[in-house]
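User: I'm new to structure prediction. If I give you an amino acid sequence, what do you actually give back? Let's try with this one:
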Amino acid sequence: GAQQALELIAAETTRLQIPLFIVYGTATSEQQELLKDVSAKFGATLLPVRPAVERFFAGKTVTKEDRMKALQLSSGDPHPNATGHRLYAETVMEGIRAEGRLFQEP
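Assistant: Good question. You get back a string of structure tokens that encode the predicted 3D arrangement of the chain. For your 106 residues, that looks like this:
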């Protein structure tokens, strides 16, 4: 399942000496433990998207439903919409910058 898939990806990025960033949104405690285990085993960097989401909604009073509407494709499909993907991209860039992986700012 998910653990095997993550470990295959992590093993391949380790073999190729490519840094691995795992960005995650809402995750159960079991899923978080799996991510932590794979991260520790393969030296991947875990990046929660929550800080970017919190910044996006800072100063706004929104319900959980409003947040979901603003970031998901639809109520029936919890995958991120364009705004949600932008927050994931910001999270990845923050991780890359924090690890000094960029030579220049874009």
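You can read the tokens as a compact description of the fold. Here is one thing that stands out. The helical segments are 2-15, 29-42, 50-57, 64-71, 82-98.
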